[in-house]
Amino acid sequence: MGSRQSALALTQTNHVIASLEALARREGIEAEFELRKIVTRGDRILDVTLSKVGGKGLFVKEIEQAMLDHEIDFAVHSMKDMPAELPEGLMIGCVPEREDPRDALITRQGWTLQTLPQGAKLGTSSLRRSAQMKYMRPDLNVEWLRGNIDSRLKRLDDGQFDAILLASAGLKRMGWEEKITEAVDPDLCVPAVGQGALAIECREGDEELLALLKLYHHERTARAVEAERAFLKTLNGGCQIPIGAHAVLDGDGETLTLTGIVGSADGSELLRETLRGADGRKLGVALGEELLARGAERILAEARE
Asked: Catalytic residue positions?
């Protein structure tokens, strides 16, 4: 199993290994796992924003190549890092149950999004978060903040920022939930596509591995993520563009509610729409086409330029 070397990536990967080992024992399957650490381009480039160095794919390409070269058999990714299109020969073999998809606000003085003082310095590594914050709170001083979770929290503690935005899921998986000042309602800040979910990627046709991964698969999460990723693919989006989507499967187990946003990097424009339907892929495509018809195509073109 391949993994990035960050503390969060290793925590996620080791959790998956432990879960698969338990499932294998339960089913009487012989399975041994070996962890291979891989450095990605996204791990090496820390002094510029992701949008300026390629966006999505920065944290997975080297790992995917190792899979294609048969150096590793599968890998655990944060779903939000996954490009809409996968390399030929690879597939998402399993989507485990989702952790909290919300963004997390962490502040030094216990401020919430509503009570952050005018001019407060807010750090984020995400154009999506930045655009929504600038749109909602144009009085804030939003600045980019790269690095792993540990280094971002340290810069907050050192007083370089008044507040930072991170993914709740990563903090919870690290056991740092108590650091969260406010779990931001998705109605205020729409999460990234796939945020809170994991993607276990493997080679197509690896039937023995796929049989084991099937035991770990969570269909409700997979259906929600399918809708979000179809939206992303329709917009041909990535980290270079402020795009967000959040799908929730209703209590009936059939109907999905999908909300998507497309915004300008400076926060001056923000398009938002919600649709409901049973087919996740069709729903994501329909929502993407709806926003394109409302002007998202122009916003996306300007952002790419």
From this structure: 81
